[in-house]
């Protein structure tokens, strides 16, 4: 008789954490798209939109960072949770620097703001990949 093991996946993170990550990522993407729009059109309102979207992304990202820190509790810890928490903290710090750059004049902010927006989005996307890294029940991948 052959024993079969069911390959169930355990949830990678809490649903509230997923909601906060999705909100932060969408606002960070909006910041990037607004910076691209400003770089192409030089319409000053786009840099204002990017600054506000970045602040909203910082708020959601800070709450998601708290959830990521709570995910480091040994009973809930997964293989990618420490890397997710570290990368998400790096993304939050880069977004904070991006907010400081966006506080400058529109002409003075442009090259650095776009570069920081791309970096924040890339690091946040990689961090979310490690947060959603599925594990089988029992820790087997």
Averaged pLDDT: 87
- Radius of gyration, in Å, reads 18 Å
The SS-based structural class is: mainly alpha
Q: Give the N-terminus to C-terminus distance in angstroms.
A: 25 Å
Pfam family, one: DUF2231
Organism: Pseudoxanthomonas suwonensis (strain 11-1)
Protein name: DUF2231 domain-containing protein
InterPro entries: DUF2231_TM
Describe the overall structure.
The chain is mainly alpha-helical. 72% of the residues lie in helices and 3% in strands. The protein is built from four helices and two strands. It has a two-stranded antiparallel sheet. Helix 1 packs antiparallel against helix 2, helix 1 packs antiparallel against helix 4 and helix 2 packs antiparallel against helix 3. The protein is elongated. It starts with 8 loop residues before the first strand and ends in a 5-residue tail after the last strand. The relative contact order is 0.19.
What topology does this entry show?
Layout: E1 9-10, H1 15-41, H2 44-70, H3 81-102, H4 106-131, E2 135-136
Antiparallel strand pairs: 1-2
Helix pairs in contact: 1-2, 1-4, 2-3, 3-4
Concise structural overview:
By secondary structure, the chain is mainly alpha-helical. The protein is built from four helices and two strands; from the N terminus they run βααααβ.
